[in-house]
Each structure stands twice: as C-alpha cells, then as structure tokens.
Amino acid sequence: MYCLGLISGTSVDSIDAALVKITGKELDLNIELLSGINHDYPDKLRATILEVAGGKPLSMEAYAQLDEAIALCFVEAVDKIKQNHPNIELIGSHGQTVYHRPPNQENIGYTLQLGRGEIIANLTGITTVNNFRVADIAAGGQGAPLVSKIDAYLLSDPEKYRCVQNIGGIGNVTYLPAKKEDNWQKKVMGWDTGPGNMLIDLAVQKFSNGEKNYDKNGEWAAQGNPYLELIEKWLKHDFFQQPPPKSTGRELFGADYLEQCWQDAQKYNLPETDFLATITDLTAASIAHNYQQFIKHPIDEILLCGGGSLNLYLKKRIQAHFPGSTAVRTTDEVGMNSDFKEAIAFAILAYWRYVSKLPGNLPQVTGAKQERLLGDIHYPL
Ligand SMILES: Nc1ncnc2c1ncn2[C@@H]1O[C@H](COP(=O)(O)OP(=O)(O)OP(=O)(O)O)[C@@H](O)[C@H]1O
Ligand SMILES: CC(=O)N[C@H]1[C@@H]2OC[C@@H](O2)[C@@H](O)[C@@H]1O[C@H](C)C(=O)O
Predict the structure, then answer these.
(1) Share in percent of the chain as helix, strand, coil (round to 5)
(2) In which residue ranges of the chain is pLDDT below 70?
(3) How much is the ipTM here?
(4) What's the superkingdom here (predicted)?
C-alpha cells in the first residue's frame, strides 16, 4: 500500500511529508521510502502558530481559521508529492501540536493537534487518519511519544542494545533491548528526554535579532565553551528527575525557560557564544542524565534522528557524555532516513489503524491503561 505520512513538529520549521510503500503484514512490515519533502508554512501562519503555541489566547473564530489554514497547508504538501506519485492510497496526518499538557495526578491531560482531517481527505480525495494522540490521553497515557512502537519493530537488533534518540524541537528516546532477550518487546521503553533544538533555536533567534532560525551544523555554538556549573544547575529541573512515562513541549521548555537560562548566564557574564554552547550541551547532558537514571543495561549504540542530528557540535557533546563503548550514529546508518522518520511513523500508524486495525500505542511507554486504536478516519467525498 502507498501511504503518505505528514507531520509538522514542535520546531514548526516545516511540514514533513513522506510517501512509503508498505509491504508485509501487521507488525512485520517492510518500508520503502519513495519520496520525502519539506513544505514550508507561509511566514505569517508560522508566526501565528508559534504565538499560539507560546500561550497567546485565541478567539473561537481565530481558532477555527487556524485549524483550517494548517489543513490547507498540509494539502499543499500532499499535492506536491502527488505530482510525481498520483497513486497515494492512505494519508496519516499528525497535524500541528499547539498545546500539550500530559496528565497530572488527577489524571487530567490535554493535547491538541490542528489541521482538520476532513479537509485533507476531501481536498486530496484520499482517506485520511489524524488526531492520533487523544485516544492514548483518554486512556490515561501521555499521548506521546508514539514513534516507540515503530522504532521497536523497525530498528531493534538481534544482538545490540540501542537507544533511538530523536532530536526535534523536543527530544525523545526509544530504548530497544536486544531481540535475543526473552520478551524483548515488553522491555522496550520510551519517553521525552526534554529540550531538543527548541532552546538552541530560540537563543539563535534572540542573538541574531530574528535573522537566523537555527544554528546551522552547530557552527556558532562550536565557537564557545559550555559552562558546566550552569548545566549542573539546570539539570536539577523536575522534568529531568521525573521517571517515565513523561512527555513535554514548548509549555515547559519554551521562550520563558530560555529567558530564565539567559538570566542565570548573565550572573556569570557569559558571552553569547558560550551561552549557545551551554544551552546546546544542556540537550546533550539531559539525554545522558535521562539514560543514566532510567536505563539499567549498557547501551551499545545511540541512533540519532531529527534535525538535531545535523548539529555537529551537539553530536560531539552527546558523544562526550558517553565516553565508553557507546557509539553515536544516525538512523541513516541502519537504513532509516533520519529526516523523515517521524513522517514515516505516521504513515505506519495510519496503516495500523485503517488496514490492520492494530493499536498504535505502547502502554509501557505512554502510561496508558490499555493498548488503543489511534486516530480518527476521514473518508473523502
Ligand atoms: N543543518 C542543521 N544544523 C543544525 N541544526 C539543524 C540543521 N537542520 C535542522 N536543524 C535543527 O532541527 C530542527 C528541526 O528538526 P525536526 O524537523 O526534527 O523537528 P520537529 O519535527 O519540528 O520536532 P519534534 O520532533 O519535536 O516534533 C530545526 O529547528 C533546527 O534546530
Ligand atoms: C505532543 C507532541 O507533539 N509531542 C511530540 C514532540 O516532538 C518530539 C516529542 O515531543 C514526541 O513526544 C512527540 O512526537 C513524536 C512524533 C512522537 O509522538 O513520537
């Protein structure tokens, strides 16, 4: 089946669209990536999404318009792929997260992804599955991360103990025990590790007065030195101590948090380059801190994916936090495209929902009380 996965992540940098050919059955799938594109939001829409995700209140009318505008942009991404691949049979659309509050002690949680599925289905003429996270949240789960089940079935190794580390706006890990272990599936773990590129992007935007959106290849941070005392202080943040299941977003590690970090740095007169190196190392150190606390088995390799895997300074810092025999590589090196892994995941989640009628969540990862079918199905006119 030809399935198209769509997602715009927490960085709000662009819509990722990945067309895959899925063969095989149920959990035992083969995936061939046929096409992958990034489709940019218009500047004004991107700015609105960032404002809203940053907490700006909206009227109901503006909310409805935003939901539709995002869907129309997702349709443009589909149309681009359709030019060379007219035979798409199913779409899995994650949409755009604008709010995420995982369940608290009273079990109250919300997650909101915009980009209406009805519009995507009607305008593309292709059956569309969307709104994947709410069923997990309703079952008491975090609603994230959802890629862990896909990582488990596509990236587990017979012998090696792996961590698949996504570095998007937020970072998340899937721990994959070696398949030689009895009941290896039950030992898979996954959770959000904290900030990925989000704080780095915000700092670069601040220091460049909005001229730059991100630190290309980590070149700016590489000119500075991380200030370890600050990292130790920042690692005391409750989120880094909290055991899984856990997930987070811009609500915790957005502009307000960056501002707090910048205030801390000014007490030490840190220049901008050192601050960038320090905030970049916070991502690396928080990944290491999470693994040290919650993974009890030695890790043979860390497979990076997401835009942060292109930040060479960040990659170097991650390797520095694992000085032993843990190799730091990218998922590309084991045959999984690191840019489009999340979009591919939503194509597979749609396939599991619509074709195989299989649950998409791993309760041991999200904390949900049960496995659930994830996503709402929208049929075209
Ligand atoms: N060449 C590069 N050098 C450094 N950083 C890069 C490079 N290319 C992309 N990035 C970073 O990756 C980010 C985008 O990553 P990605 O698309 O994986 O995030 P996302 O999907 O929005 O996030 P999430 O996984 O949290 O939903 C950019 O905002 C930028 O910070
Ligand atoms: C609420 C939300 O959109 N969460 C994202 C975000 O981006 C990375 C991390 O935080 C992850 O938990 C999740 O996305 C991926 C695709 C997931 O669900 O696996």
Answers:
(1) 45, 20, 35
(2) none
(3) 0.98
(4) Bacteria
